[in-house]
Each structure stands twice: as C-alpha cells, then as structure tokens.
Amino acid sequence: MRRPPDLFELRLDCLLPTIAQLEDKLARLRAPFVITARSPQEGGANALSSRERGNLLSRFLSDAQYVDVELRSAVALRSLLRLAEQRKVKRIISYHNFKATPPARVLLTKARAAEAHGANIFKVATRTDTPVQLARLLDFITNENVGLAVSAMGIGRLGAISRVLLARAGSVLIYASIDEPSDIEGQLSLKQLRALGIKC
Fold this sequence. Notes:
Elements: E1 8-11, H1 12-15, H2 19-25, E2 33-36, H3 50-60, E3 66-70, H4 78-86, E4 90-97, H5 104-116, E5 121-127, H6 131-141, E6 149-155, H7 159-169, H8 190-195
Parallel strand pairs: 1-2, 2-3, 3-4, 4-5, 5-6
Helix pairs in contact: 5-6, 6-7
C-alpha cells in the first residue's frame, strides 16, 4: 500500500490457518497493529476457547501496539491484560451489541467496567438501524462523564454515516476495510473514509 492506515487490526482468530506465515511476514507491515482473537459469542472464527485465544494473543503480544479483548472476556483473559500492561501494550476493551444500541447510561456503565479492567480505550460497536440508535451512540461519545478514550461505530443501515459522524464527534479509532467495503453492514473502505475527509 502506498498509504497504509495509521493502524492495522490483525484478527488472529480468522488468521489461525496461516498463523506461522503471519509471524514471518509481520515485519512487512508499515504501520503498528492491534491484535484480537474474537470470542465465538461475538463473531469470532474457529470456535476458540478463552484459553486458546489467550495463548494466541500472547504469542503476538510483544509485537503489537494494542490488544483488543471483549468486555465479556476480560475476567477470563485478565492474566493476558496484566501481561500487556507490563509490556506497555495498550489495552482496548470492546463491547459489541449486534441487535441494538443501549441507552447512553448503559454504555457508560460498560465503559466504567472496561476502565476497571485496565482499558486505555473503550471500543463500542452497536446496531444503528434507526436515528434513535445512532443518537444514543452520539450521546454516549460526547458524554463528559466517560473519562476514557472511546472508539465508537455503528453497524446496520446507518452504520456508514455513523462512522463519519462519530469520527467527527471524537471517536479515537475508525475501523475500515483495506480495499472493498467488507461484509460488516455499514463498514466503509479506507478509500471511502479518506474521500470523506476522515484521517485514517
């Protein structure tokens, strides 16, 4: 890529079949990266247990700038999160809700739980099919009581516009596909975001 993004995200659960090749090629990435291995309950591939995910993340931890762990997995992966802190790898604690966007007060409770687990960034991705759902995300990200860096994005019919609005409202990370729009409803490509004036 002539213009790589600021960060790459490596979905280790999806890359499992080629994991040895990945280790050999990491040096070719011309930007820092986030590692994650998603829980099967939150769309993770290859039905990995918490232990398998923890081992996989540990394997790449020293090379990563960030590690992303779901809020629901933070207790099971607490030793990994402690190790990340020791190695000065920043922690993203994420919350996904593919069915709805809870009210801002519920999201605030989730953010505080993420902070208690040592999050540097709270990532929230929720369903935004309606203006009310999108307004809830905007209300949350602009809430002065959050006290933690937030990366927020919508999924669904208003997912694309949510990413633009939330980026302009202060979302610290904006997720995009490398080339063509992905199969995640509402996720734009890197080229599309840049065309809209979003730095990434």
